[in-house]
Write a structure and sequence with these properties.
Blueprint: E1 2-4, H1 6-19, E2 25-32, E3 42-50, H2 66-78, E4 82-91, H3 99-103, E5 110-117, E6 120-129, E7 136-139, E8 141-142
Parallel strand pairs: 1-3, 1-8, 4-5
Antiparallel strand pairs: 2-3, 2-4, 5-6, 6-7
The structure holds zinc ion.
């Protein structure tokens, strides 16, 4: 399960709507619960918008520069947090995990997809790619007002 704080969620939605009709992307920072009750539960407390570095048409594609991801990781550690996942948007498209998304994923992160329709946030879903990047299972996602 992955839960997103209101402040982080506002940042993600604002970024996704601002970049429409292009895909946006960014990093999610937070903590992973350890203990009997919240073991493995992810809490996103900060979202960091990252520039979509894809050189072609960005309406259906995003790319993260490795150095931008490293910087987000550094920022997380400096704040005592972890880099938990990556978010990106699907303009005028549902929040599913595409073949390209799967190929460009990494198995140790949560991938949150925000569907933006007509420039406004519509719905979201989170995915966990398997180690071979051949499939991604849906992860329970809790966002404010969801
Ligand atoms: Zn996608």
């Amino acid at each position: 399960m992955i839960k997103i704080d209101p402040h982080a969620w506002d940042t993600m939605v604002a970024h996704a709507e601002a970049k429409y009709p292009n895909e946006c992307c960014g990093a999610m920072l937070g903590s992973i619960g350890i203990g009997r009750i919240d073991d493995g539960q992810k809490l996103v407390s900060q979202a960091v918008p990252i520039e979509n570095a894809y050189a072609g048409a960005q309406g259906a594609r995003y790319e993260l520069r490795p150095e931008d991801l490293l910087e987000a990781d550094r920022r997380a550690r400096a704040a005592g947090l972890d880099l938990i996942g990556i978010f990106h948007s699907h303009p005028d498209c549902d929040a599913y995990f595409s073949k390209t998304d799967l190929e460009n994923s990494c198995p140790w992160y949560s991938f949150v997809v925000l569907s933006v329709k007509g420039g406004k946030f519509d719905h979201a879903a989170s995915f966990l790619p398997n180690p071979d990047q051949t499939a991604a299972e849906k992860e329970e996602l809790i966002w404010p007002k969801s």
